[in-house]
Design goal:
Blueprint lengths: L13 H12 L9 H11 L2 H10 L1 H9 L3 H17 L5 H9 L6 H14 L3 H18 L9 H5 L7 H8 L6 H10 L2 H14 L4 H13 L5 H4 L6 H4 L1 H4 L1 H12 L2 H10 L3 H7 L4 H17 L4 E3 H7 L8 H10 L3 E6 L4 E7 L6 H28 L3
Antiparallel strand pairs: 1-3, 2-3
Helix pairs in contact: 1-2, 1-4, 2-3, 4-5, 5-7, 7-8, 8-11, 11-12, 12-13, 13-17, 17-18, 20-22
Length: 389
C-alpha cells in the first residue's frame, strides 16, 4: 500500500505554528522572503514533502532552530520536523546535515542538544550511527568536555577491554563502522585514539592512513595497549607498510619483537636517532625507556631467575645499582610480575608477557613443563613413601 504524503497533524495547526515559530525566530538576513508563503501553500495542499523541502533548504529556517528561545521551543519544532520526516519515510540525514552546516556563532551546544534529541527519537540503527558520528565530530571541534568519561559520549568510549560503543554496535548488527571509528580516532587522543585506530585497521585492511597512525601510536606507547597490539604485524593493513613505508614498518617490527640492541642497530643503520624518530614525531627518551622495559620482558620470558648483571647487560645500564628501578618500572607497567632477591642479586620472575612465540619460547616452555613434571613426580613419590599401607 502506498504511503500517503498528506499531513496528519499531531495537534491542530501544528505545522502552522511550526512555520510561524521558524519565520519569527529566523535571522532576517538568512530567511527567504517567500518562506512563510511557500510553507502555507504546502500546508493548505496537505503535502508534507514540499513543506519539508522548503524548511530544510531555507538557511534561515534551519538557523531558527539554533536560536529559538526558550530551548524547549526549538526541541518541539525539531521533534515535529522529525515526525514529519518519519511519516514521509525520509532519511533524517538531510535534517542532520542542515543543522551541522548552519554557520552561526556560539551554537555548538544547541546543535549538540538537537542531535541528542534526534538520537533518542530514532529507532533505525543506521540513522543512530550517523547521529553519533556527527555528535563526536561536533564534540571534537567545539565541545571537547563532552568527550570526558563522566559525559555520555565519553562514557561510550570507555570499557576495560572493549569500548561500550563497540558492544552497542554489535548488538545493533552494524557492519559498516568505518566512518564512525575514523571520526572517533580523529577527535580523541592517546590510548583512546589508539584503540579506535586498531579497531579501524582490524576491520578494514585498506585503511592505509590509519595503519600509519596506528603503527606510530604503537611505537609511541607499546605498553598501555600491549595485549591489543601484540598481533599488529599480522594485520593486512599494517603489512602494506612494508611497501608503502618500509622505515616505519621496520621500526615497528623492532618494538614488537626486538630488544634494545636491535633498536640501536636499526637506528644506526637508518641514519641515526634524530633522522628517524623526529620524522614520525617520536620522543627519543620515551622510546629508549619503553625499549628497555620491553627488553626486560623478553629476558624475563626466557628465565625464571635472572642475575642483576644479566639485566644490566641487556638494558645497557652503567651498573647493577640501576637494575631494581627498571624492574620496578616493568612491574608498574603490568607486563612483569617479579620479586628481587637483594642478597643474591637475582630477579625472581613470577609472570611475564610473551612478546613473540617462536622456537626459543617453545624450548623454554618445554623446559618448564619438564621441571613441573619432575616436581610433581617428586611430590607423588614422597606421598607414596609416606603412606603406611
Amino acid at each position: 500500500m502506498a504511503v500517503s504524503s498528506a499531513l496528519v497533524n499531531v495537534s491542530d495547526d501544528a505545522e502552522v505554528r511550526l512555520v510561524a515559530l521558524l519565520a519569527e525566530a529566523a535571522p532576517t538576513d538568512l530567511i527567504s522572503p517567500a518562506f512563510a508563503q511557500d510553507c502555507q501553500a504546502s500546508i493548505e495542499a496537505g503535502k508534507a514533502g514540499p513543506l519539508l523541502e522548503t524548511i530544510l533548504k531555507d538557511k534561515g529556517a534551519v538557523a531558527a532552530l539554533l536560536v529559538l528561545q526558550p530551548k524547549y521551543d526549538a526541541v518541539s519544532a525539531l521533534s515535529l520536523l522529525a515526525a514529519l520526516m518519519e511519516r514521509e519515510r525520509r532519511s533524517i540525514h538531510d535534517l542532520v546535515n542542515a543543522l551541522m552546516t548552519a554557520d552561526l556563532p556560539d551554537t555548538a551546544e544547541r546543535k549538540m542538544t538537537l542531535l541528542s534529541v534526534l538520537y533518542n527519537m530514532r529507532s533505525n540503527a543506521t540513522e543512530k550511527i550517523h547521529l553519533l558520528q556527527q555528535m563526536y565530530q561536533l564534540a571534537g571541534e567545539s565541545c571537547r568536555r563532552l568527550l570526558e568519561e563522566d559525559q555520555a559520549l565519553g562514557a561510550m568510549l570507555a570499557g576495560r577491554s572493549t569500548p561500550t560503543i563497540v558492544s552497542m554496535l554489535d548488538d545493533w548488527n552494524i557492519t559498516d563502522r568505518r566512518e564512525l571509528y575514523r571520526t572517533i580516532a580523529d577527535v580523541t587522543c592517546d590510548e583512546r585514539k589508539q584503540k579506535f585506530l586498531l579497531l579501524l585497521i582490524e576491520s578494514y585492511p585498506d585503511a592505509g592512513d590509519a595503519a600509519k597512525e596506528a603503527a606510530i601510536g604503537a611505537i609511541r606507547d607499546p605498553v598501555s595497549l600491549f595485549v591489543q597490539q601484540r598481533t599488529l604485524l599480522s594485520l593486512p593493513a599494517i603489512e602494506t607498510l612494508k611497501k608503502n613505508n618500509a622505515l616505519l614498518y621496520g621500526l615497528l617490527q623492532v618494538f614488537q619483537e626486538g630488544n634494545l640492541s636491535d633498536y640501536q642497530a636499526f637506528l644506526k643503520a637508518q641514519g641515526g636517532e634524530t633522522t628517524i624518530l623526529s620524522s614520525f614525531g617520536l620522543n627519543a627518551d620515551a622510546c629508549m625507556r619503553n625499549m628497555r622495559i620491553l627488553s626486560l620482558c623478553s629476558l624475563a620470558s626466557e628465565y625464571e631467575e635472572i642475575p642483576y648483571s644479566k639485566v644490566a647487560e641487556t638494558l645497557q645500564l652503567p651498573s647493577d645499582f640501576e637494575v631494581e628501578s627498571w624492574v620496578i618500572a616493568a612491574m608498574s607497567s603490568g607486563l612483569l610480575q617479579a620479586k628481587m632477591d637483594q642478597l643474591r642479586h637475582m630477579v625472581m620472575v613470577e609472570r611475564c608477557v610473551v612478546r613473540r612465540f617462536n622456537l626459543e619460547q617453545w624450548k623454554a616452555l618445554q623446559r618448564r613443563l619438564a621441571d613441573l613434571k619432575q616436581n610433581i613426580g617428586s611430590v607423588l613419590r614422597g606421598l607414596k613413601d609416606a603412606d603406611p599401607v
